[in-house]
Specification:
This protein is α/β, with parallel strands linked by helices. The protein is built from 13 helices and nine strands. The chain has two domains: about 140 residues, Aspartate/ornithine carbamoyltransferase (Rossmann fold, 3-Layer(aba) Sandwich), CATH 3.40.50; about 140 residues, Rossmann fold (3-Layer(aba) Sandwich), CATH 3.40.50.1370. The strands form two sheets. The chain has a five-stranded parallel beta sheet with strand order 7-6-5-8-9. A four-stranded parallel beta sheet has the order 2-1-3-4, with helices on both faces. The structure holds phosphoric acid mono(formamide)ester and norvaline. The site of phosphoric acid mono(formamide)ester has 8 residues, from α2.
Length: about 325
């Protein structure tokens, strides 16, 4: 396959063709094998990357840091406080300054428009580590995990249950439709993804001979699914006063044993994490005390069951993010 991503940004999957996505997945698989075989792959020795996080992170930050170090690069982390960005220095100025020092810039923050602005003013590749609208590196890990567990994904079905307007659901719809995977989302109508993106994805799906289904009916949505996916009911940056309303709206869409029984017998469970599947977190405990609910988007039973591939997914963040950095930073 003749794909060259050198110098490219990775801002959203809409910007990438099917062939380019397939190439990144193949590269991730090869890099995973190297890591597992303890084969050195410090191909980008001498380069440096900067990671800008305006929101919290465990997986994404660690995957970028370890990925960069495995590739032989130096890494700087800048958190929500401590840099001049946004407060005393515009995004455009920050992008130009960082481009003079680094070979690549990762950004996690709020509006997609901010990362687009950053990329416009940067002379080095910019990678999206999550915005309100998209979470494209997550989807590469999700699809790699599906390939490892299911095999060829053409004609298979993934269903997302929960807040289908969020970054994860929207990005899943894009990647599934580009790769010819049937996509369903199960949510109350007010939490369906926006029509414009649905229309765009329907075109991709049509080209690939796959389908997109938006439904409020859990049985219909989950029927014949090979992968059942959910995410938190309230995303980072949303106001905590929304919890009560969101719990009411999304409780019927919780992934539990009964929901899994509607899917194909060998269906896997996926979640980008972090997850509220018990009360062993500060927020999980607060919600339990306030609303009397101990498990939210997924029950602990499903989360810890054999069909749950969430830790494979988390590990695959490393290999796929490494692939994105390598593909966009290597010489042509
Ligand atoms: N899935 C994911 O992006 O996790 P973090 O928020 O921990 O990076
Ligand atoms: N939708 C979630 C994803 C976290 C990885 C959020 O934005 O908080």
């Amino acid at each position: 396959m003749n794909v060259n991503l050198s110098g490219r940004d990775f801002l959203k999957l809409l910007d990438y063709s099917k062939e380019e996505i397939v190439y990144l997945l193949g590269l991730a698989k090869a890099l995973k094998e190297k890591k597992q075989n303890h084969e050195p792959h410090n191909y980008l020795k001498g380069k440096n990357v900067v990671l800008l996080f305006e929101k919290d992170s465990t997986r994404t930050r660690c995957a970028f840091e370890v990925g960069a170090m495995d590739l032989g690069m130096g890494v700087t982390y800048l958190g929500p406080t401590g840099s001049q960005m946004g407060k005393k220095e515009s995004i455009a100025d920050t992008a130009q300054v960082l481009s003079r020092m680094y070979d690549g810039i990762e950004y996690r923050g709020f509006e997609q428009s901010v990362i687009e602005e950053l990329a416009k003013n940067s002379s080095v590749p910019v990678w999206n580590g999550l915005t309100n609208e998209f979470h494209p590196t997550q989807m590469l890990a999700d699809i790699l995990t599906m390939q490892e567990n299911i095999g060829d994904l053409r004609g298979k079905k993934l269903v997302f249950l929960g807040d289908a307007r969020n970054n994860v659901a929207r990005s899943l719809m894009v990647i599934c439709s580009k790769l010819g995977i049937n996509f369903a989302c199960c949510a109350p109508k007010e939490l369906f993804p926006d029509e414009e993106l649905v229309k765009t994805c329907e075109e991709f799906a049509k080209n690939e001979g796959s389908t997109i289904l938006l439904t409020e009916d859990v049985v219909r949505g989950v029927k014949n699914a090979d992968a059942v996916y959910t995410d938190v009911w309230l995303s980072m940056g949303e106001d905590s006063s929304l919890w009560e309303q969101r719990i009411k709206l999304l409780k019927p869409y919780q992934v539990n044993k009964e929901v899994m029984s509607y899917a194909n017998p060998n269906a896997i469970f996926l979640h980008c994490l972090p997850s509220f599947h018990d009360t062993n977190t500060t927020i999980g405990k607060e919600i339990s005390e306030k609303f009397g609910i101990d498990e939210m988007e997924v029950t602990n039973e499903v989360f810890t069951s054999k069909c749950s591939k969430v830790m494979d997914q988390a590990e695959n963040r490393l290999h796929t993010i490494k692939a994105v950095m390598y593909a966009t930073l290597k010489d042509e």
